[in-house]
């Protein structure tokens, strides 16, 4: 079984993979050997790329969320010890199946321990996964103090330790370079056979839809413009694909991304998303933006 995302992650790209594949350069599996993902998040695209395209030899991932990157590093280097610790957390949490108060107390004790940042890297990674599997809707959200503040979910016996998948993820991460910090540093790993996939925090569709804060730094319009400028730096050096929200929804005159990326190919795709933190879902329009340098890259390779 191939490795799959080990976290629940709001806005994950599993449902977008077919459209991302259509956006790849036609000779991707032959001519490209480097894949860079500056906003790795839950890693859905990463694991898909590693499974589907064995010619990719150089893989670099990055995220500004240092707690998230710590999990990737621990899975890569200490999978067995992490599995052992997750089994302890799982058994302890499941013991409160018929004790609502005990289950809540256990969850909030672990959340407080996580926010104290006093644990070692192994325990911090384990608690991160525990919180992800037991919090409300698997959300990841922090406040300005970088404190995880999602309340407990309604799960009685969730799977906290997926031993087989952690082992598989560890194997495929062995040759992956893992960075943590500002996405711009990833440009140092570029060559003329590189694909960038950029999945930044989405621009909110309205004032109430921005419910996720993946770090204590805000990715506002100024940051969206800085990212566009970074993409310009990549031009004629690499092929890139960028995803974001489609703020020009029906009835809206918001042309923010249409104006910002007017020099590039902007594709609107329909993606099934859950709405308002409940079980209802609908198809939303999202953007896949690609640069127009495929022809130049092919000429370089030839």
TrEMBL record:
MF term (GO), any: S-adenosyl-L-methionine binding
GO biological process: DNA restriction-modification system; methylation; mismatch repair
InterPro entries xref list: Ade_MeTrfase_dom_2, M_m6A_EcoRV, MeTrfase_D12, SAM-dependent_MTases_sf
Keywords from the named record: Methyltransferase, S-adenosyl-L-methionine, Transferase
Keyword Transferase: yes
EC number: 2.1.1.72
Residues bound to S-adenosyl-L-methionine: 9, 13, 63, 199
Family: Belongs to the N(4)/N(6)-methyltransferase family.
Protein name, UniProt field: site-specific DNA-methyltransferase (adenine-specific)
Organism: Flavobacterium crocinum
Organismal lineage: Bacteria, Pseudomonadati, Bacteroidota, Flavobacteriia, Flavobacteriales
């Amino acid at each position: 079984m191939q490795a799959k995302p080990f976290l629940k992650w709001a806005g994950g790209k599993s449902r977008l993979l077919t459209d991302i594949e259509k956006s790849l350069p036609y000779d991707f599996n032959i001519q490209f050997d480097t894949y860079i993902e500056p906003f790795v998040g839950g890693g859905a695209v990463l694991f898909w790329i590693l499974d589907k395209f064995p010619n990719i030899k150089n893989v670099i991932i990055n995220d500004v969320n240092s707690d998230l990157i710590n999990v990737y590093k621990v899975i890569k280097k200490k999978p067995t010890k992490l599995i052992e610790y997750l089994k302890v957390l799982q058994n302890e949490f499941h013991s409160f199946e018929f004790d609502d108060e005990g289950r809540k107390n256990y969850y909030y004790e672990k959340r407080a321990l996580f926010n104290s940042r006093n644990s070692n890297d192994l325990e911090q990674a384990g608690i991160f996964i525990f919180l992800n599997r037991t919090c409300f809707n698997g959300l990841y959200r922090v406040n300005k103090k970088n404190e995880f503040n999602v309340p407990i979910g309604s799960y009685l016996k969730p799977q906290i330790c997926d031993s087989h998948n952690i082992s598989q993820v560890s194997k495929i991460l062995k040759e992956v370079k893992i960075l943590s910090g500002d996405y711009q540093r990833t440009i140092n790993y570029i060559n003329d056979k590189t694909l960038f996939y950029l999945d930044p925090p989405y621009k909110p569709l309205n004032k109430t839809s921005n419910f996720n804060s993946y770090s204590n730094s805000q990715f506002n319009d100024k940051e969206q413009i800085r990212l566009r400028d970074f993409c310009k730096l990549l031009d004629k050096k690499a092929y890139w694909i960028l995803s974001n929200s489609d703020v020009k929804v029906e009835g809206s005159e918001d042309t923010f991304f249409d104006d910002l990326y007017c020099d590039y190919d902007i594709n609107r795709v329909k993606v099934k998303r859950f709405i308002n933190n409940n079980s209802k879902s609908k198809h939303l329009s999202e953007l896949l933006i690609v640069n127009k340098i495929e022809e130049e890259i092919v000429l370089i390779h030839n």
